[in-house]
Amino acid sequence: MARSAAYDGVANISATYGYYVDDSNAAGWANTMATRGFKETPFAGYHIGRERLIAARVRGKGPEKQAGISYHWLLQPMVLVSEDGRSATGRFRLFQPRTGKTVGKEGDFLAAQFWGGMYHDRYVLEDGSWRIWELTLDEPYIVPVAWKDGVWAKSKDPATPRAFAPNADVDVPIKQLVRREQHFWGGTGAQLQWPSILPMWFTYTNPVSGRVPEFHQPDCVPCGLRPDLALSKNGYQEPPDAPAANRSP
Question: In terms of pTM, does the model score above 0.90?
Fold first, then answer.
């Protein structure tokens, strides 16, 4: 029963995070994190701990009106729950349609277009409520042009890669993760952008055959640098890997 409830808890807290982000409510999404949880700031690195996230990302009350919304729809869930039902991992595909008061043009953040990524998250049952332990997002796997300019089908390799200013405010810069962030924006190596294909990482083996994927990291993404962030170092269990997880207790 605890393991079944964990699945629902993971789905609910993930959706809650998405709703707060859609509303540009930083204080709301920060409070979906566990006390010692950590979140990746896109293309920069990780802030460790809920209070650290609040201090770094919360800037007063969220806006009552917005020029547009960048929706966070989470699809194709792959949730693995620990044996005791107190922790879990979740891999969700991000489908992010964007809307705006104006149609926008290619390159506008709120142009009529969509964006794609992959969440690699961890969750814990903390003081009776499910909270996000790790929030990692690999993106963007799809970078379309604006709707009126041909959507994803007419995307072209960029003439020059995007430039990212170093972010000294983060606790774990993604550049320090080396191979794990190779080719991602703000990471290491040559920057890739759709229609080029970014590496597709997995935290589990093939659910049927047990085959180990080419890009495989079973522990949390920054755990190589910060082993203290592992679930097992904080009183929680790592969920069993697939296909061993595909069974009833």
Answer: yes
